[in-house]
Design goal:
β6 and β7 (108-116) form a beta hairpin. Helices cover 34% and strands 30% of the residues. The protein is built from 4 helices and 11 strands. The chain is an alpha+beta fold. It starts with a helix and ends with a strand.
């Protein structure tokens, strides 16, 4: 009889422990969105902030168990204050772009929010300036990337009184445009030498015009 009571207390204790664990896990996963900033109901500005209010304070487990996903992909920053989560584009939202914002906690989707960004025509003077700064920066980054991948492009175009040598991105080829009165036979050797000095890959196609 004594053994039965011992087993009984062990089983009850285990059930109480499991119930406690279940309550803790539940408290970690039952995030619910109760409000979203009103600016999401209309077109967002390129530097607008999105504020999301949850049913409880955001704790460390949020970062472990929850994902914030933008589609298309977007680099963003977050700021947490009690039950509020603020999300902001790291640089800016692309004008005219449609995004979709999802928050997924333990494989459960708790937010699916479509976002529309203002078109360029609707940007404020300040937003136009910010957008142009980022466009210039992105263009510079693209040029640097191209030069790293195709360093010969830094040496083109080559322009003389006989011809112009340039790279055509559409054709992925070197274009040689002859000046009036010139023929391929007259300048071919000179052009080949110029292309070689520009460090153009030997197998790249050359088109004469």
């Amino acid at each position: 009889m004594k053994k039965i009571w011992i087993y009984f207390f062990i089983i009850v204790s285990l059930l109480l422990i499991l119930a406690g664990v279940f309550r803790v896990l539940s408290s970690l996963t039952n995030y619910q969105v109760i409000a979203i900033s009103e600016n999401t109901n209309s077109e967002l500005g390129i530097k607008d902030e999105i504020e999301i209010i949850f049913n409880k304070s955001i704790s460390a487990d949020f970062n472990k168990n929850c994902q914030i996903v933008f589609s298309p992909e977007l680099e963003f920053t977050t700021q947490v204050s009690a039950d509020r989560l603020k999300i902001k584009a790291k640089t800016r939202f692309i004008p005219g772009q449609k995004y979709n914002l999802k928050i997924i906690c333990r494989k459960q989707e708790i937010l699916n929010l479509p976002l529309q960004i203002k078109t360029e025509e609707k940007l404020t003077p300040e937003e136009i300036q910010i957008n142009q700064i980022h466009l210039d920066y992105e263009f510079g980054q693209e040029i640097m990337r191209v030069w790293e991948e195709q360093p010969f492009r830094k040496n083109l175009p080559i322009s003389t009184d006989k011809y112009v040598i340039a790279y055509s991105q559409n054709n992925d080829a070197i274009m040689v445009v002859l000046r009036p009165g010139q023929t391929q036979e007259l300048v071919e050797e000179e052009v080949e030498q110029a292309i070689s000095q520009a460090q153009v890959p030997p197998l790249m196609k050359v088109v004469w015009k």
